[in-house]
Design goal:
mainly alpha, Amino acid/polyamine transporter I, 2 domains, 21 helices, disordered N terminus, Mn(2+) uptake NRAMP transporter MntH, transport
């Protein structure tokens, strides 16, 4: 148990100041202790001082809600970067170029499903003060824990592999940098991003990653101003339907690439690091309710942005690249965008891809660290981990492996990891002994299990298609 280091019971101003400063500076452990003390003292003050209720102090409830909202925004935007990674770029462009607006509805459904899953993960970290890997590590015996870690680590490394290669491709497209050197540069830049989190704290890291997310959005949305989509066809694309087996397999790839296992593990770690106090739970009560409500808004805003970027990719391909047979690779798609919409849009597209690769590989390394910490119960320096996971990508680039093929295969590996993260997440967030007063309601649990079943089924279709050669 961390020692209590809060302000005096009557010192409400200092408590609120610590809430506003939360994450700005100081070691993670100090921020955790300060946050726990602030929550405890605020609750104690509200519960024990005469006239401290929201009814007696005009506007105090609104003030607390605003503080909770300001404190909660950020983690979901870090997680959202995984939804606009190079794998999503390839799938969305292929869908738009091959089937026009037909599969727009798939991205809408995938974004909504991902939002629910991410909120469940975030709420788990807030309520329990632990990440999903930590909770599983405490419940599994050693053989099962190590086996679970092996598959989770494989998923994290496959993700990191794809992101490094995506960044290398972007550097090649923008500056004609050789792929191996581009992969090395991507790894070095991601080290710099990780240093922001390691030395400056989580809030600065969240701001940097959110800035990258905005660059990604500008890069992929800008083309729509040059080649605007047909509103009637966009509306028609919102009606669920397919056009042959090829569209079914592509829809499976789009959905499977959207809900990614590593970012589900990650979100619980992000909220734990932001709001947790060691192994202490967030106490049940109005403060937790406000925090969960603000977190829900954080997830909604972040997923709306990520969903809009993904849909923009598909609409751009549908309006400008439909029917072309040279967009089955990212390099081909970039060349087609430049030829069709102009060099300027092509440069913005490349910058969006570069930001996608750099930000998502940093986030993936963060997720891998959280997985290892929770399941192996030990920490490895992020820089050491970055070097270890960078090596396979550089080897594949050096031997001349096709980047797009590597991206596709990495998505297949990710699909195998989905059941292992969704099933435990749904069970834990539906367990009253784990979530106490914040257990998921029955409609949410039913919807969550339906989403899990649909994702697993569609990914099984994708895997069969890839193996059979029909995907």
């Amino acid at each position: 148990m961390l020692p209590h280091r809060g302000a005096a019971p009557g010192d409400r101003g200092s408590v609120e100041q610590r809430i506003e400063r939360n994450g700005e500076a100081g070691p993670v452990e100090d921020r955790h202790a300060s946050r726990a003390a602030a929550d405890t003292e605020r609750s104690r003050t509200r519960d024990t001082l005469p006239g401290a209720s929201s009814a007696a102090v005009p506007g105090s409830r609104l003030r607390r809600s605003r503080l909770a909202l300001r404190s909660a925004l950020g983690p979901a935007f870090v997680a959202a970067v995984a939804y606009v990674d190079p794998g999503n770029v390839a799938a969305n462009l292929s869908a738009g170029a091959s089937y026009g607006y037909l599969l727009t509805w798939v991205l809408v459904v995938a974004t909504a499903a991902a939002g629910l899953v991410q909120y469940l993960s975030a709420s788990l970290g807030i309520v329990t003060g632990a990440s999903l890997p930590q909770l599983l590590g405490r419940r599994l015996r050693t053989p099962g824990r190590l086996a679970y870690w092996a598959q989770a680590e494989a998923v994290a490394m496959a993700t990191d592999l794809a992101e490094v290669i995506g960044g290398a491709v972007a550097l090649y497209l923008l500056f004609d940098v050789p792929l191996v050197l581009g992969g090395l540069i991507s790894g070095v830049v991601s080290l710099g991003l990780l240093a922001v989190q390691d030395r400056g704290g989580q809030r600065p890291f969240e701001r940097v990653i959110t800035a990258f997310l905005l660059v990604i959005a500008i890069g992929f949305v800008s083309g729509l101003f040059v080649a605007p989509p047909d509103p009637a066809e966009v509306a028609a694309g919102l009606v669920p339907r397919f056009d042959g087996l090829g569209s079914v397999l592509l829809a499976a790839a789009m959905l499977g690439a959207t809900v990614m296992p590593h970012v589900v593990y990650l979100h619980s770690a992000l909220t734990r690091d932001r709001f947790g106090a060691g192994d202490q739970r967030t106490p049940a009560g109005p403060a937790r309710t406000r925090l969960l409500r603000a977190t829900r808004l954080d997830v909604v805003l972040a997923m709306l942005l990520a969903g809009a970027v993904n849909i923009s990719m598909l609409l751009l391909a549908a309006s400008a690249l439909r029917g072309r047979d040279d967009v089955d690779t990212i390099e081909g798609a970039h060349a087609a965008v430049s030829a069709t919409l102009g060099t300027g849009i092509g440069v913005l597209f490349g910058l969006g891809l570069l930001a996608s690769g750099l930000a998502s590989t940093s986030v993936g390394c963060y997720a891998g660290s959280a997985i290892m910490e929770g399941l192996l119960r030990r920490r490895i320096n992020l820089f050491v981990r970055r070097a270890v996971t960078l090596a396979p990508a550089l080897v594949l680039l050096a031997v001349g492996a096709d980047p797009t093929t590597v991206l596709i295969l990495s998505q297949v590996v990710l699909s195998f990891g989905l059941p292992f993260v969704l099933v435990p997440l749904l069970r834990l967030t539906g367990d009253a002994t784990v979530m106490e007063g914040s257990v998921s309601g029955r409609p949410v649990r039913v919807l969550g299990w339906l989403i899990a079943a649909a994702i697993v089924a569609l990914n099984a279709v994708l895997i069969v298609g890839v193996i059979s050669g029909s995907a």
